[in-house]
Write a structure and sequence with these properties.
This protein is α/β, with parallel strands linked by helices and 594 residues long. The chain contains 21 helices and 14 strands. It folds into four domains: 3-88, Arginyl tRNA synthetase N-terminal domain (Gyrase A, domain 2, 2-Layer Sandwich), CATH 3.30.1360.70; 164-274, no CATH class; 280-404, HUPs (Rossmann fold, 3-Layer(aba) Sandwich), CATH 3.40.50; 406-585, Isoleucyl-tRNA Synthetase, Domain 1, CATH 1.10.730.10. Helix 5 links the parallel strand 5 (117-121) and strand 6 (155-162).
């Protein structure tokens, strides 16, 4: 049982004994005592005042005295107003260390056949361009959230919806026909998603040149856009696609295959996976069918021009277009179709959409529409809304080719790791293959940690060099701490698990470390409740920082007392285990040497 559980149960018994009132232990949440006060754990007594009918200080004094007399874990206490600060018996912490060290997957809860089924959608790329830095944040957040929800005992399905239809796809297709010269990934040596992304940029360049020429003839900007022959060709290609024109569809399938092969390479390298992939080209018709079903039931209404709408004014929103007058679907219709197929495929208890905060209104509307259409999880869907990611130079624009491709970014991160590992002593004794593997782990770890340590709701600026500093709040700092511990353990000849350490009384620094280790279970639970990988990331940094201070102040291998030496080795090994476990929730790997 954890120290928090022990204190909660003992405090519940104290309230019953002192005041004759049953107060549930699960409603009592001990907190780590603030550093400026004496003690290890703090209990807020204000919830007990109704039972005690006494002032906060008097209530805390009585409960504290009862705990000292009846709870073996509590050595002494002090009271600051309504806060009861408890000092735990030093040898008790040794038992806590043994508990954490010996509990397989401490902090994680295994799912069962009856656990809630949570579906998480992330990535959602367009097939007209490669994945870029914005997608990287999306994928890392989605994948980490999936790991965190699994660690909290949920069954999880990771899903992706690929935007593989629409005018933007036709722009790339038309550009390939006009200016691609039959290029293929094989003939150019380019990944397929990069090749098609170049086509998308080429379309935009030719389109802008055409508009400029039309405006030079005296047309306004709007008139030029209306008269654009290039855009008319793109729309005609879209019409043919929707009509099932085989020639257009064959080109569409071929180009998409190139893109999917490129996406798969990027996903593998980034370390993210999916259990099920859906495609808009297969879901939009399902959405139209569901909307027409809603129309028949009077949930939606049709205007005189034939368009179909939802009246959301009773819900505090406005009227929402679902089908255009020509019968074509809009984006939210496709989301309804995707939801229908997902609900057919899986008995979903909770649906989480990982999508940027520019789509907040969209998901308000989608939640209401799904609820009106009878999806049991519709009203409770979670929009995991995150902020935008920019570079120090500012925003990125796909059409202008100013985005940072995910592949280029990963190359740069590994290159930066290589450059910064040139310091004397780093990677010493490793062969070339081992060095490259470490550089990959460190470079990608730096990328993942830098993005995931930020509160997801906030916009952020990504700085590659800052992210890979070996001394700051970075992934490499945590990974280096893990590797340092592995080096210590390799040098130790002690039988760590065969030596009795029960009589060892930890010092203050060791106690603080054990307390942080025990906190891991609470951090994982909080990260799941708040949908926040950042809580795990910053916990890992705090634990690594605390260990490095301990490592600086105290000897491990040179400690003369065998029991103390083994105690410190076990403490170090457990820190490494929890660091690796925390980083795994962020999709990060740990190097054995660094």
């Amino acid at each position: 049982m954890s120290i928090d559980s022990i204190l909660a149960q003992a405090t519940s018994e104290a309230v019953k004994a002192l005041y004759g009132v049953d107060f549930p232990a699960d409603k009592i949440v001990p907190q780590t005592t603030k550093k400026e006060f004496e003690g290890n754990e703090t209990i807020v007594v204000f919830p007990f005042l109704k039972a005690s009918r006494k002032a906060p200080e008097a209530t805390a004094q009585e409960i504290g005295q009862w705990l000292v007399e009846h709870c073996e874990a509590v050595e002494k206490f002090n009271v600051i107003k309504g806060f009861l600060n408890l000092t735990i018996q030093p040898t008790f912490w040794t038992g806590v260390l043994n508990h954490v060290a010996s509990t397989p997957n401490y902090g994680f809860t295994a799912a069962t056949a009856t656990s809630p089924l949570v579906m998480i959608e992330y990535s959602s790329p367009n097939t007209n361009k490669p994945l870029h830095l914005g997608h990287v944040r999306n994928n890392l957040l989605g994948y980490s959230l999936a790991r965190i929800m699994e660690a909290n005992g949920n069954r999880v399905v990771k899903t992706n919806i690929v935007n593989d239809r629409g005018i933007h796809i036709c722009k790339s297709m038309l550009a390939w026909l006009k200016w691609g010269n039959g290029a293929t990934p094989e003939s150019t040596g380019k990944k397929g998603d990069h090749l098609i992304g170049d086509c998308y940029v080429a379309f935009d360049q030719h389109y802008k040149a055409e508009l400029k020429e039309l405006e030079a003839r005296g047309m306004s900007e709007d008139e030029a856009k209306e008269q654009s022959a290039l855009m008319r060709e793109a729309h005609e290609m879209l019409r043919k696609w929707e009509d099932g024109d085989e020639q257009v569809r064959a080109l569409w399938r071929q180009m998409n295959e190139w893109v999917y092969a490129g996406f798969d390479t990027t996903y593998r390298r980034l370390g993210v996976t999916f259990d099920k992939i859906y495609y808009e080209s297969e879901t939009y018709l399902e959405g139209k069918e569901k909307v027409l079903e809603g129309l028949d039931k009077g949930i939606f209404y049709r205007k005189d021009d034939g368009s179909v709408w939802a009246d959301l004014t009773p819900d505090g929103l406005d009227h929402k277009l679902l089908l255009r007058s020509d019968g074509t679907s809009v984006y939210i219709t496709q989301d309804i179709g995707t939801a229908k197929l997902r609900y057919q495929d899986y008995p979903i208890d909770q649906m989480i959409y990982v999508v940027g905060n520019e789509q907040n209104y969209h998901f308000q509307v989608l939640s209401l529409l799904l609820d009106k259409l009878g999806f049991k999880w519709g009203k409770d869907l979670i929009h995991f809304s995150y902020g935008m990611v920019e570079l120090p130079e500012g925003k990125m624009k796909s059409r202008e080719g100013t985005v940072v491709d995910a592949d280029d970014l990963m190359d740069e991160m590994i290159g930066t790791a290589r450059e910064m590992s040139q310091e004397p002593g780093r990677l010493e004794g490793l062969d070339d293959n081992e060095k490259e593997e470490v550089l990959r782990i460190v470079g990608l770890g730096a990328l993942k940690y830098f993005i995931l340590k930020v509160d997801p709701r906030k916009n952020m600026t990504f700085n590659p060099r800052e992210s890979i500093d070996f001394n700051g709040n970075t992934g490499p700092f945590i990974q280096y701490t893990y590797a340092r511990i592995q080096s210590v353990l390799r040098k130790a000849a002690d039988n760590i698990d065969g030596t009795d350490i029960s009589a060892v009384s930890p010092n203050d620094k060791e106690t603080s470390l054990i307390q942080r280790l025990a906190d891991f279970a609470t951090v994982v639970a909080d990260a799941g409740k708040n949908y926040s990988p950042a809580l795990v990331a910053n916990y890992a940094y705090d634990l690594a920082k605390e260990f490095n201070q301990f490592y600086h102040d105290y000897s491990i291998l040179r400690e003369d007392t065998a029991a103390v030496r083994v105690f410190r080795l076990k403490l170090s090994r457990t820190v490494a285990d929890i660091l690796a476990r925390a980083l795994s929730l962020l999709g990060m790997e740990v190097p054995q040497r660094m």
